[in-house]
Write a structure and sequence with these properties.
Elements (H helix, E strand, L loop, with lengths): L3 E3 L9 E9 L8 E7 L5 E4 L7 H8 L7 H9 L6 H8 L14 E5 L5 H8 L3 E6 L5 H7 L3 E3 L12 E7 L8 H9 L2 E12 L4 H6 L13 E2 L2 H10 L2 E9 L2 H12 L24 H34 L5 E8 L4
Parallel strand pairs: 5-6, 5-8, 6-7, 8-9
Antiparallel strand pairs: 1-2, 2-3, 3-4, 4-10, 9-12, 11-12
Helix pairs in contact: 2-4, 9-10
């Protein structure tokens, strides 16, 4: 008989979850075991035990890799969005699974969980006024250097209290929140009359989840506290007075390659995975000339092979996305009654 734990379900408001497979952090080395748990009332899938809002800043500040990112890195990445053919390139790479690309000139946008702040710079380049909320304290120097409007803390702090937003974005964030239904209700209250929510989150009905099983990279334990498919998410949104007006799936090609690498790698509890570490230059200053040449030749071969793999994964992923089986869901919502 399955072991049972008491947690509140954001989809149906049930409180009993059956504990399943044991899982752990296979990316950044958080040193505890967790379980995948199913709501006994609606079968929503969640991580147990569930972390609290108070625990999140410490978790991300200690284990997440943004402490190595600089403001120049962010500025350079945001500049790519304005280059010629950028929209087509994003589609080919599967990187158009970002809500800020849906903003319109003159709109006010709030990105909840804005990470390094790239999305705010991109939205500003598209003619919007951009604001963000972020829990990771590692981003503070970046926000200061770039003059970004970021509130460091929680949505529940009621940041930017005098503003209403035409677009609220959550890129790969809703699954990180202990109480995602409460967050949706609060965000609905921050919208203008015709305001929209665009949320992006992993799709547990994806082809890659079924192929990789427990080694699927988007379990991302313990940072992902909830694991949604479209049906369960839509049910939760309806309870919050919101309706899904459109949805699609998008699979970043890089996710597929990382998934293949992770599938072959055996993680160790409490140890960061080399797959998820920032790569260093192959040619260190102390390399001997002949060694450097050899490394360069090997690097060129790897670059060519990587390009071939990315191209193949891109063709497959665009077909998979068109069938609705992609790795991330992009969902647009409006308040019930809004036209």
């Amino acid at each position: 008989m399955a072991e049972v734990i008491t947690m509140r379900c954001p989809v149906c408001d049930g409180h009993q979850f059956s504990l399943g497979t044991t899982v752990m952090d296979d990316r950044y080395g958080e040193p505890n075991h967790y379980r995948l748990a199913h709501c006994q009332a609606c079968d929503h899938l969640a991580t147990a035990p569930r972390l609290t809002e108070a625990e999140l800043p410490g978790l991300y500040g200690r284990y997440y890799p943004r402490k190595d990112i600089t403001s120049e890195d962010v500025r350079r990445q945001a500049a790519d969005a304005a280059k010629p053919f950028a929209r087509w390139i994003r589609w080919c790479k599967g990187t158009d699974n970002q809500g800020q690309y849906g903003v319109r000139p003159g709109e006010s946008m709030l990105d909840v969980g804005c990470g390094s702040g790239v999305s705010l710079l991109e939205a500003a380049a598209l003619g919007a006024s951009a604001f963000g909320i972020e829990a990771d304290p590692n981003v503070k120097p970046i926000a200061s250097a770039l003059g970004l409007h970021i509130h460091f803390g929680s949505l529940h702090d009621n940041p930017f209290p005098d503003r209403r937003f035409d677009l609220v974005v959550m890129n790969q964030v809703i699954e990180h929140l202990p109480d995602p239904d409460i967050a949706l209700q609060r965000l609905a209250d921050r919208l203008t009359h015709q305001g929209r929510l665009i949320l992006v989150f992993p799709n547990t009905s994806s082809l890659w989840r079924h192929l990789f099983g427990i080694r699927w990279i988007n379990w991302h334990i313990p940072y992902h506290l909830h694991h949604f498919d479209l049906a369960h998410f839509s049910r939760m949104a309806t309870r919050c007075g919101l309706k899904v007006v459109r949805s699609r799936t998008v699979t970043p090609n890089l996710w597929t390659l990382l998934g293949l690498r992770t599938w072959r790698h055996s993680p160790s509890l409490g140890q960061p995975s080399p797959i998820w570490q920032v790569s260093r230059s192959l040619n260190s200053p102390g390399s001997a000339p002949n060694q450097a040449s050899s490394l360069t030749a090997r690097a060129r071969v790897r670059t060519v092979l990587l390009g071939v793999l990315l191209t193949l994964s891109g063709v497959i992923n665009r077909l998979v996305d068109a069938m609705g089986w992609g790795d991330s869901l992009v969902v647009e919502l409006r308040r019930e009654g809004a036209s």
